[in-house]
C-alpha cells in the first residue's frame, strides 16, 4: 500500500485527537479525587520551590470542615482583580461620614474598590485616605440653610476638631448628630455625581458598610435586559415610611443615567427645596424617593432580596432566600467585608477555565454556576458554624412565639413578640410547654421532623401473628408478590412524595429561648452572641438552637437551583 503525505498527515491528526480525548477523559476521571484530597502532601514540595515564584500561595482561612468543596484550601491573593467584571459605564458612589470614614472605608479600599477603575467617595467633610480623596458633599449647600439648622451642628463642630474625628465624637457621645446630618447628603450627592461623572449608564449608590457583589451586579444590569439605562430606572430594596415607598439606602440602590440626568439637569432648585423639607423628614433616602416621584413620576422598583439589608450572619436563609442572586448586603463591619471578599476570591470555579469548545454543551450551566446565589453564602460562610445549640446566643428567631401566660412575664415581653404568640386553642401539647426551658422550646421544631425516605420499609413493616402464617414457602411467595405488586409500589411512591412535600414545606427551623419566652423561625439564621447574666438568674440567659436535620431535609427536598432566580417583576 502506498502511503501518501496526505494519509500520513491524516493519521497524525487522528492520533493527536485520540490523545487529546484520552487526556480529557483522564482529567475528568481523577479531578474529583483532587478536589477531595487534602493538600498536605504538597506542602513539602511547596516549601522547596516557593522561593522561585514571586507570588505567595497561602492558607485560605475560610477553609474549614463543612465547606471543603466550596472554597480552595490554598490561594494566591496577589492578583485579586483577575476575573473582576468590566464595569465600563457603571459607577459606584459610596457615601460615608467624617466620624466613621476611617473605620469603614479602608477595608472597602483594600477589597472590592481596588478593582474599580473609577468611583466616588462622598462625606460631610473633605478628607484623604491614602491616595483616595473624600469629597464634602455638603460644601455647596447654601450657608443660609446651614446657619439656622441645628442638624448642621456636627458639620460645624467636626471642622473645629484638632485631633481625629473619632476622638472628638467619642468624647461628645453625640452619635445621633451624624444620623441627623446624613439625610441632607442624598440630593447634593446626586448633583455632584452627575457634575463630576456625567454620562454613565448606571450609578450604584451605597453606604460605607454596604458590600456590593459586582460580578452579579454587572451581569444583572447588562445581561438580564429587563430594563435599559436610557429609560428612567430606580432599583433597590423597597421600604415604606408613612405609606411612601423608597429605596433603602443601606441596602444600596441603582439609578439609570437617564433618570439621574433628568433629575439634575431639568430641576435646578430641587436641592434647596428639599433642604427645607429635611427638618421635618427622618431620612435622606426617603426624601430622595419623594423628589424622584414628585419631579420624574418614578417610584422605586422592588429588587429585594437581591438588594439586601442583612449580612451573612443575619440573612434569613430558606424559602425566598435561596436561589436568588445576591447584589448587596448591609451592616457589614470591616471583618465581614473582608470575609465575603475572600469568599468571592476563593470560591471554587477554577474548572470553568477549561476551553470553551470542550464545554459547549454545558455553557448555560456554567453561566448559572458563575452567579453567586444566597444559598452559596450559607454553604460557604454560615453552615460550618451551625450547631445543635449555643448558649448566650440570639439567633433572631421571632416568627412564632410561646410565652409564659403569667401576666408578669407577658408584661416583660417585647410588644412585637407578644403580637406573634400562637393562640392557646391552636397549640399542641409541645407548644403549650415550650416556654418552660430551652429543651422544651427545641421540641417545637423537632415535632416537625419527618422520617427519611429510606425508612419506609421499617415504618411500614408489620410482624404477622403465628396463627396467620402459612408454611414458609407460601409466606415468602406472598411477601414477594406484595413487594412487587403495583399497589405496594404506588403506596411507596405516595409515601415518599408526601415526605418530600413535608420537608419542603416545613415552617420551623430554629428556636430561641429567653426569660420564659420561646420563639421559633421560618428560616435559619446564625445570629450573634448575647451577654451572659451575672446574677445567676437562669431565666435571664439566652439559648438558641437549630434543627439541623430539618434544615438538611429542607435543602435536600428543595434540590439544586436550576437557574438563578433573578428579580424580574418590578411592580
UniProtKB/TrEMBL annotation:
Region spans: Disordered: 405-435, 461-495
Membrane is among the record's keywords: yes
Transmembrane segments: 12-30
Localization, UniProt: Membrane
Domain of life, source organism: Eukaryota
InterPro entries: C1GALT1/C1GALT1_chp1
Protein topology in the membrane: Single-pass type II membrane protein
Keywords from the named record: Membrane, Signal-anchor, Transmembrane, Transmembrane helix
Gene Ontology CC terms, in alphabetical order: membrane
Gene3D superfamilies in the cross-refs: 3.90.550.50
Biased amino acid composition, Basic and acidic residues: 411-434, 477-495
Protein family (similarity comment): Belongs to the glycosyltransferase 31 family. Beta3-Gal-T subfamily.
Name the UniProt record assigns to this protein: Glycosyltransferase family 31 protein
Amino acid at each position: 500500500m502506498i502511503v501518501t503525505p496526505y494519509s500520513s498527515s491524516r493519521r497524525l491528526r487522528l492520533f493527536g485527537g485520540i490523545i487529546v480525548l484520552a487526556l480529557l477523559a483522564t482529567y475528568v476521571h481523577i479531578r474529583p479525587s483532587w478536589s477531595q484530597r487534602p493538600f498536605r502532601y504538597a506542602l513539602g514540595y511547596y516549601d522547596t520551590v516557593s522561593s522561585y515564584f514571586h507570588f505567595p500561595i497561602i492558607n485560605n482561612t475560610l477553609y474549614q470542615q463543612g465547606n471543603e468543596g466550596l472554597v480552595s484550601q490554598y490561594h494566591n491573593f496577589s492578583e485579586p482583580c483577575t476575573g473582576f467584571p468590566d464595569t465600563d459605564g457603571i459607577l459606584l458612589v459610596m457615601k460615608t461620614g467624617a466620624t466613621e470614614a476611617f473605620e469603614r472605608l479602608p477595608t472597602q479600599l483594600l477589597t472590592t474598590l481596588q478593582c474599580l477603575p473609577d468611583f466616588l467617595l462622598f462625606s460631610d467633610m473633605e478628607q484623604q485616605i491614602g491616595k483616595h480623596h473624600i469629597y464634602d458633599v455638603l460644601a455647596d449647600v447654601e450657608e443660609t440653610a446651614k446657619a439656622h439648622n441645628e442638624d448642621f451642628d456636627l458639620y460645624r463642630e467636626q471642622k473645629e476638631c484638632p485631633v481625629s474625628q473619632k476622638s472628638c465624637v467619642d468624647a461628645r457621645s453625640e452619635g445621633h448628630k451624624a444620623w441627623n446630618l446624613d439625610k441632607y447628603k442624598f440630593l447634593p450627592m446626586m448633583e455632584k455625581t452627575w457634575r463630576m461623572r456625567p454620562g454613565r449608564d448606571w450609578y450604584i449608590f451605597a453606604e460605607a458598610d454596604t458590600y456590593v457583589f459586582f460580578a452579579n451586579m454587572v451581569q444583572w444590569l447588562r445581561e438580564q435586559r429587563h430594563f435599559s439605562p436610557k429609560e428612567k430606572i430606580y432599583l433597590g430594596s423597597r421600604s415604606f415610611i408613612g405609606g411612601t415607598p423608597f429605596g433603602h439606602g443601606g441596602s444600596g440602590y441603582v439609578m439609570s443615567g437617564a433618570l439621574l440626568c433628568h433629575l439634575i439637569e431639568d430641576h435646578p432648585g430641587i436641592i434647596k427645596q428639599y433642604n427645607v423639607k429635611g427638618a421635618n423628614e427622618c431620612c435622606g433616602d426617603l426624601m430622595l424617593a419623594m423628589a424622584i416621584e414628585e419631579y420624574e413620576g418614578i417610584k422605586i422598583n422592588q429588587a429585594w432580596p437581591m438588594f439586601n439589608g442583612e449580612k451573612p450572619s443575619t440573612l434569613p436563609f430558606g424559602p425566598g432566600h435561596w436561589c436568588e442572586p445576591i447584589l448587596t448586603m448591609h451592616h457589614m463591619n470591616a471583618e465581614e467585608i473582608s470575609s465575603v471578599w475572600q469568599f468571592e476570591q476563593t470560591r471554587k470555579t477554577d474548572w470553568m477555565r477549561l476551553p470553551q469548545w470542550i464545554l459547549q454543551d454545558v455553557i448555560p450551566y456554567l453561566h448559572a454556576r458563575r452567579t453567586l446565589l444566597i444559598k452559596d453564602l450559607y454553604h460557604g460562610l454560615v453552615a460550618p458554624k451551625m450547631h445543635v445549640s449555643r448558649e448566650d446566643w440570639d439567633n433572631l428567631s421571632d416568627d412564632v412565639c410561646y410565652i409564659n401566660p403569667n401576666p408578669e412575664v407577658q408584661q416583660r415581653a417585647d410588644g412585637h413578640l407578644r403580637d406573634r404568640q400562637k393562640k392557646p386553642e391552636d397549640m399542641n401539647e409541645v407548644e403549650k410547654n415550650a416556654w418552660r426551658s430551652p429543651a422544651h422550646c427545641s421540641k417545637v421544631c423537632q415535632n416537625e421532623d419527618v422520617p427519611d425516605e429510606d425508612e419506609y420499609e421499617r415504618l411500614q413493616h408489620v410482624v404477622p401473628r403465628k396463627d396467620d402464617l402459612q408454611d414458609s414457602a407460601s409466606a415468602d411467595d406472598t411477601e414477594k408478590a406484595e413487594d412487587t405488586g403495583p399497589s405496594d409500589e404506588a403506596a411507596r411512591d405516595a409515601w415518599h412524595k408526601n415526605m418530600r412535600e413535608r420537608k419542603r414545606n416545613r415552617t420551623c427551623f430554629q428556636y430561641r429561648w429567653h426569660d420564659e419566652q420561646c420563639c421559633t423561625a421560618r428560616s435559619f439564621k446564625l445570629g450573634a452572641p448575647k451577654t451572659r447574666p451575672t446574677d445567676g438568674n437562669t431565666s435571664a440567659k439566652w439559648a438558641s438552637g437549630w434543627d439541623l436535620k430539618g434544615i438538611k431535609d429542607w435543602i435536600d427536598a428543595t434540590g439544586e437551583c436550576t437557574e438563578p432566580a433573578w428579580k424580574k417583576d418590578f411592580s
